[in-house]
């Protein structure tokens, strides 16, 4: 007993020392001043994908574009007043989090799903969901199916050993429907099997399905159902040791959402600067001092909107009506029009 | 009555022939002006009475195609919701979904919001260009009976208490755009589909972007 008590005491002491150390680390400014580092450097280091259509791609001239790319441009506009001051680093799924932890990048904007373990085990933080993705179904229009509950008896192509595979089984079982899973090794094989008719439904994350649809002979002969059967909240990622930086990135996301709600666009920004509506005036920096309180300029949000537009503009340009993908807004609508994009107010 | 109508038809045919002659002389492209590079800028487009789009022109690109989408709303099933900023018209189906149609929004379509009802439906509506359109395009016919090539398209749904309507078009490439004239336009296949789904008395909610 005494021995274990001693051991317990030792553990407690060690834990206390660890906590004190952690407290010191939090108090110490040097390790965590990402905002200052970015300003001193004059460039934002942003990690992106190695190529995901609509989210981040690099053209043959080396110019990056996409929804995730625009989010980094928005952060650069807020912090540096210039959306072009970004260095983009394409990262693989295996390298992405270590690049962030090591300080190689300031922010990861790479269609990454926010999960609990990524925050608690990897020491990361997800400031704001930028795109609510989820698993769905692609199928030929000729099947005349308009809802996932009509899919009983389908042969569904799915990547083996993924959460997608599990979700699929759960969904069909929960709805009392029979199906046959055609398990394949990767996305390319899944598409090939679907093309060959080995399966008559393809299941993956909806953002991926719209990309896959473009690879089919006649894309408009195929439909992505509106049903979403899993949660894949895609979010930018920062280190969890810098609350100021976390807050900056979070409010850039909120500014984009609030701008759409208030009707402020990259085109009408000059009019918005002259608006008499209090919420518009606060957002564009005509009233209050919201930027300076987080180390940004007064007109930080106006700089964001000028650079990339509001959330709707960013979505439609990269993923929606003005892109080849043509992804419907779905749950990524503003809450006022039935979606789940809801940003706290700037006041 | 019948005789009167046939007179109009003859006159209309003459107009159409005149227009066809103009069209024949014009370059083969269907579009009269270039689409503005800013997708939100208004497209100053001339009407093309008599022009009959080809099947490939009538085929919409994926994002403007009629399709079922996730759509959560407190409006009851059967309601039409028009979102002008998005360029979409939704028919609420309940259970968090709607049938979505790509639309072109004319200048008048941006000028009001709120709730109206469909008071009348018309197959192949006639066309009477308003005076300001005649001023811009003096050679336009003053009247054109309904039929293929009519700028009003295959169907019209009249919005009660207003001069506005949801209608078809013979310029399918304007879907997704903001255009100089008209209200809410759909490609003919879509407006026919909508016409079949929507009875007189249907509620129509028109949403505009927030005002600054």
Provide the fold topology.
The complex is a heterodimer of chains A (347) and B (212).
Chain A: H1 2-27, H2 34-41, E1 44-48, E2 57-58, E3 64-65, H3 67-80, E4 86-90, H4 96-101, E5 107-113, H5 116-120, E6 124-125, E7 131-133, E8 135-140, E9 154-159, H6 163-174, E10 179-184, H7 187-196, E11 201-205, H8 206-213, E12 222-224, E13 232-239, H9 243-262, H10 269-273, H11 278-283, H12 300-308, H13 311-318
Parallel strand pairs in A: 1-4, 1-5, 9-10, 9-11
Antiparallel strand pairs in A: 2-3, 5-13, 6-13, 7-13, 8-11, 8-12
Helix pairs in contact in A: 3-9, 3-12
Chain B: H1 2-25, E1 42-43, H2 55-58, E2 67-70, E3 80-83, E4 88-94, E5 97-102, E6 104-106, E7 114-123, H3 131-136, E8 155-159, E9 165-167, E10 178-179, E11 184-185, H4 188-197, E12 203-207
Would you write up a description of this structure?
The complex is a heterodimer of chains A (347) and B (212). Chain A is of the alpha/beta class. Chain A folds into three domains: 2-31; 33-132 and 232-337, Periplasmic binding protein-like II (D-Maltodextrin-Binding Protein, domain 2); 135-224, 3-Layer(aba) Sandwich (D-Maltodextrin-Binding Protein, domain 2), CATH 3.40.190.10. Chain A is 39% helix and 17% strand. Chain A has 13 helices and 13 strands. In chain A, strands 1, 4, 5, 6, 7 and 13 form a six-stranded mixed sheet that branches. Chain A has a five-stranded mixed sheet with strand order 10-9-11-8-12, with helices on both faces. In chain A, helix 3 (67-80) packs across helix 9 (243-262) and helix 3 packs antiparallel against helix 12. Chain A is globular, with a radius of gyration of 23 Å. The model of chain A is unreliable at 1-30 (pLDDT under 50). By secondary structure, chain B is of the alpha/beta class. In chain B, strands 1-10-6-11-9-8-7-12-3-4-5-2 form a twelve-stranded mixed sheet, covered by helices on one side. Chain B has one domain (2-207): L,D-transpeptidase catalytic domain-like, CATH 2.40.440.10. Chain B has helices spanning 2-25, 55-58, 131-136, 188-197; strands at residues 42-43, 67-70, 80-83, 88-94, 97-102, 104-106, 114-123, 155-159, 165-167, 178-179, 184-185, 203-207. Chain B is globular. Chain B contains four helices and twelve strands; from the N terminus they run αβαββββββαββββαβ. The longest helix of chain B is centred in the first third of the chain and has 24 residues, at 2-25. Helices cover 21% and strands 25% of the residues of chain B. Classes of the chains: A alpha/beta (347), B alpha/beta (212). The interface between A and B is medium-sized, with 39 and 28 residues.
